[in-house]
Structures are given as structure tokens and as C-alpha cells.
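Hi R.,

Quick one: here's the Microbial-type PARG catalytic domain-containing protein sequence you asked about.
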Amino acid sequence: MKLDVCIGDPVDFTIDWKERVRTRIPFICVANDKRAGGDWETGVAGYEERLCRRSTLSATLSIPGPGSQFDSNYPIPSEGGIYSEFVVVFRGPHDQYKKLDQWYDLPVVSMPPVRWPKLSQTSLKYAFPIERTLVKNKIRSALRICAYYGHRSVVIGDYGLGNGHRNPPQELAELWREVFLYDPDIRGRFDHVAFVFEDAYQSTTMLILEDIAKKNKHGQSSGSKGKSKSAASLGSRSTRDLPAPTDFEIFQHVFSAGEVHQTVNRPDPRYDISMLTS
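And here's the predicted structure, written out as C-alpha cells:
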């Protein structure tokens, strides 16, 4: 399986890729779990909303597929997603929404991510195993939908990242890698995967650290004045001065050939002899 981490607009990347290889490639898109396209008509700047303004995604999501037993696709179940086989793109990216001379279509898998999960302040990981499992199951569901419809390549944007969702980038990247490499329903089902980041400088890690610093400063304001100033200053310095990697850099590292090779060759603790005999 080939794994790429790139910079660009994920939908444009998918369209260009399809034109080169002459094979339909799905795009896994963040989704609002309550209504089709979220608040795309009100100017909200999430990627799903912006895609709805340049395509037929909202209309497609609003209409259940042929043979559906339901009169609405919403709300989307916690581990569910929606497969839109033919989403027609007729405008360019959100900077201008320029009308395209040629229209394109692509499959879109709409999957709601976990929003603002509770995190451990010491390790920037999911605080609750049940929430981590939910994120992993959402990833599995999105990829299983792609595999069910016969796709062997897939494009993934900054799913679950950014200010709107704030999942821990390192652990999220490792979850994607874990599913691709080890999940029995996914392993071997894909030939080529591309993670495409629209903003090369987006750092969800920095957003999380800044939020932690603000909470620490607020919490310590009720303590002694001297301690509060000292701790707040320390928290502010540590957040500002320590370089936080971008989401793109984290995914680049996690999916580098060396890291993938090391992960594959690392002994799985679940099958250690002590675990089997205990």
C-alpha cells in the first residue's frame, strides 16, 4: 500500500488524481451529524460547508438513496456515514468559487468526527478509552464504506483536526495507521491512500496547548496571587516557546516509510507470552 501526505485542496486533489488514473476515487469528508451540509448557507467556513457551496453535496445528502427504508439520512448514527456516489463539482475552491468550464463528479463519504474530545493534559492523548475507541470505529466505518463500494484508493482531508474538532493529531494519525495496517476488515483492501492538508501551517497541537494554558491560568486565578502569576506565566511561556508541529508534519512523520516499517516490525504486546499465559 502506498501512503502519501500532501498539501492542497483535497477535492481538487481527488479530481486531478481521478483524471490521471481514470478511476473513481472517494474523498472522506467531515460531516455535520444533524443536517445536510451543516450551516453551508450561512457562511460557516468548515470544509463540508465550503464543498456544499461548490457542488451538489448538500442536495445529495438531503435525499436518501434508492431502496432506503428511511425518509431522511439524519441524524447520522455515531459510527455511521453517508456514501454519495456522484457529487458534481461545478465551482472552484472557496477563495473565489469560480464557475468551472468543465464539471466533475466524485464519490464522497460523509463521516461526522468526534468534536473536542476530553484530553489528558500531560500527554495530549484521549483521556477516555471509550472516546478513543469511538474515533477508531469512525475511521473503520469510513474505510469500510469505501471498500464496500469497491474503491482501492482514497483521499482523506484534515478529518477531526482544526479548531472545530481538536482531536490530538499524533494519536489520530496513529489510529489511521493502526487501522490501515492491522484491522482485519481494512488491511490489504487499499492500494493507495493520500492524506491531503489544505492548510500546511494548521497546528491542532498548538490550539490544544493554548487552550490548556488558558484553563490553567483561569483555574489558578482563584489561588494565591503570587502563585497564580508565576504559574500563568510559566504556562504561557511553555505554550508560546515550545514549537508545536503542524498537522501536516505529524502525519508526514507517522506515515513515513521508516515509521511504518518500524511499526510493522514492532512486537505486538497483545501476543506476548505473558499475556497468553496469564
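Residues 226-240 have pLDDT under 50 and may be disordered.

Cheers,
M.
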